[in-house]
C-alpha cells in the first residue's frame, strides 16, 4: 500500500504524467460503467423487457448517435474560444452523468407499473438526455485532452483507455450475468444502471484532478466563422476531410445490424436473458485485443489503419450473423462487433485531430459528427426490415455498407501523418 501511495505521489509531481494517468483512469472507469449497460447487449434486452419491439431496439443507436452528435455544433465554437477548458469540462461532464441516475430510479420505481408505451417513451427521453450530455461535453473534453497529450501518445492513451475499460468490462459482464440471474424484472436493470452511474462518478473524480497548465492567449478581436458556415469551404478545400466523411458515413450505416445481434442470438438459440453477460464478456475481450494492438499500430503508422480494420470487422460480423450455426460460432460475431466499436474509439477523434489545426479542432470534430450521424437512421429502417423480412436482410445490407466503407477508406482516404511527412520532405 505504501509503495502504491508513493507511486501516486511521484505521478502528482509530474503534471504530464499525472494528466496521462488521470485521463487513462477516467476513460477506464467510464467504459466499465458503460459495460454494465451496454448499448449492444444489455439495453436491447431491457427494451424487450419493457415491451419494445424490433423498431424500438433499432431506435437505441439512433437516439444515442443523434443525441451524442448534433448538439456538439452548438458548443464547438464556444469550446474553441474558451481558454479555461477544465472548468467548462467539469460542468458538462456532470450533465453527462445525471441522466443515468434518473434512468436507474425510473427503472426501479416506475417501469413495472407503467404500460409499455409510457415506459419506452421515458426510457428513450432519459437515454437521449444522457447522449446530449455527452455531446455537449465532447468538444471541450477532446480539445483539453488533445492539448494535454502529445500526438505520439494519443493512440497509446485512447488504446489503453479502451483496453483497461474492457478488462474491467470482463468483470462487468460477470456482474450483468449475476444481477440478471438473481434480480427479477426491471429492478435488475435498475441495479445495473445505478452501478453504471457510480462508476461514472468515480471517473469524474479523475477529471477534477486534471492539471490544465498555462492558458492559451487568444486575440480578443479575432472573429471566427461559426462552425456550420465553415463546412462548405472545408469540403471544397480539404479533400481528405471530405473523403473521411464519406467513409465514416458508410461505416455508421453498416452498424445498422449491431443492435440486433443479441436479440437475434437469443431467439435463434433459445437462450435466457442472462446470457447477455457472456456476450458482454466476449465483446470486452475483443475490445482488449483490438485496442491494445491497434493503439500501438496507430501511434506508429497513423490512425487510418484502425478505421480500415473497423470497417473490415463490421463486414465479418455481418457475415458471421448470417452463417453461424451454433452459439460458439456466433461468438465471433460479438468479438468482431466489439472491434468495430472499439477501434473508432481509439482512432476516430485522433484522426480528425491530425486533419486540423488546434484552433479548428473542436469545429472539425463537431462538423464531422453533424454530417455523418444522420446515417444512423438506418437503425430504424433495420427495425422495420427485421419485422417485415427477418434479421438476415438487415445483416446483408449492413455487410454491403461495410464493404463500401472499407473500399473508400482504402482507395480515397489518406493518412494525414504520411501527408504531413511528404510536405516536410518536399520542403
Spell out the CATH superfamily: MFS general substrate transporter like domains
Strand content: under 5%
Structural class based on helices, strands and sheet pairing:
mainly alpha
Name of the CATH first level: Mainly Alpha
In CATH, the topology is named Growth Hormone, Chain: A
Structure write-up:
With 427 residues, this protein is mainly alpha-helical. The chain has a single domain (12-210, 227-419), classed as MFS general substrate transporter like domains (Growth Hormone, Chain: A), CATH 1.20.1250. The protein is 82% helix and 0% strand. It contains 19 helices and no strands. It has helices at residues 2-13, 15-36, 42-49, 54-69, 72-81, 85-109, 116-148, 151-182, 185-208, 227-237, 239-254, 261-269, 276-301, 304-323, 327-354, 361-372, 378-389, 391-412, 416-426. The protein starts with a helix and ends with a helix. Residues 216-226 and 421-427 have low confidence and may be disordered.
Amino acid at each position: 500500500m505504501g509503495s502504491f501511495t508513493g507511486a501516486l505521489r511521484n505521478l502528482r509531481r509530474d503534471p504530464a504524467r499525472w494528466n496521462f494517468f488521470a485521463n487513462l483512469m477516467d476513460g477506464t472507469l467510464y467504459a466499465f460503467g458503460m459495460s454494465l449497460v451496454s448499448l449492444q447487449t444489455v439495453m436491447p434486452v431491457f427494451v424487450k423487457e419493457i415491451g419494445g419491439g424490433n423498431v424500438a431496439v433499432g431506435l437505441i443507436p439512433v437516439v444515442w448517435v443523434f443525441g451524442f452528435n448534433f448538439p456538439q455544433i452548438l458548443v464547438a465554437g464556444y469550446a474553441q474560444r474558451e481558454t479555461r477548458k477544465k472548468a467548462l469540462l467539469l460542468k458538462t461532464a456532470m450533465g453527462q452523468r445525471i441522466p443515468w441516475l434518473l434512468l436507474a430510479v425510473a427503472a426501479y420505481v416506475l417501469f413495472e407499473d407503467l404500460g409499455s408505451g409510457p415506459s419506452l417513451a421515458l426510457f428513450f427521453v432519459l437515454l437521449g438526455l444522457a447522449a446530449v450530455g455527452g455531446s455537449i461535453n465532447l468538444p471541450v473534453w477532446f480539445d483539453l485532452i488533445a492539448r494535454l497529450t502529445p500526438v505520439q501518445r494519443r493512440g497509446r492513451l485512447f488504446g489503453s483507455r479502451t483496453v483497461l475499460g474492457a478488462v474491467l468490462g470482463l468483470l462487468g459482464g460477470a456482474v450483468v450475468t449475476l444481477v440478471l440471474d438473481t434480480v427479477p424484472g426491471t429492478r435488475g436493470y435498475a441495479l445495473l444502471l445505478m452501478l453504471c452511474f457510480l462508476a461514472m462518478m468515480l471517473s469524474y473524480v479523475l477529471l477534477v484532478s486534471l492539471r490544465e497548465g498555462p492558458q492559451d492567449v487568444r486575440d480578443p478581436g479575432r472573429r471566427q466563422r461559426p462552425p456550420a458556415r465553415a463546412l462548405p469551404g472545408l469540403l471544397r478545400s480539404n479533400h481528405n476531410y471530405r473523403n473521411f466523411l464519406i467513409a465514416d458515413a458508410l461505416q455508421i450505416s453498416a452498424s445498422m445490424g449491431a443492435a440486433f445481434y443479441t436479440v437475434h442470438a437469443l431467439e435463434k438459440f433459445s437462450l435466457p436473458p442472462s446470457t447477455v453477460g457472456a456476450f458482454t464478456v466476449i465483446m470486452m475481450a475483443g475490445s482488449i485485443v483490438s485496442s491494445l494492438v491497434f493503439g500501438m499500430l496507430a501511434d506508429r503508422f497513423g490512425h487510418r489503419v484502425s478505421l480500415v480494420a473497423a470497417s473490415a470487422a463490421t463486414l465479418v460480423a455481418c457475415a458471421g450473423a448470417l452463417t453461424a450455426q451454433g452459439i460458439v460460432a456466433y461468438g465471433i460475431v460479438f468479438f468482431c462487433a466489439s472491434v468495430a466499436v472499439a477501434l473508432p474509439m481509439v482512432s476516430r477523434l485522433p484522426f480528425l485531430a491530425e486533419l486540423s489545426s488546434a484552433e479548428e479542432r473542436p469545429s472539425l470534430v463537431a462538423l464531422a459528427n453533424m454530417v455523418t450521424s444522420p446515417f444512423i437512421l438506418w437503425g430504424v429502417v433495420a427495425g422495420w426490415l427485421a419485422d417485415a423480412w427477418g434479421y438476415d436482410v438487415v445483416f446483408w445490407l449492413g455487410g454491403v455498407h461495410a464493404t463500401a466503407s472499407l473500399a473508400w477508406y482504402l482507395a480515397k482516404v489518406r493518412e494525414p501523418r504520411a501527408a504531413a511527412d511528404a510536405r516536410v520532405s518536399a520542403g
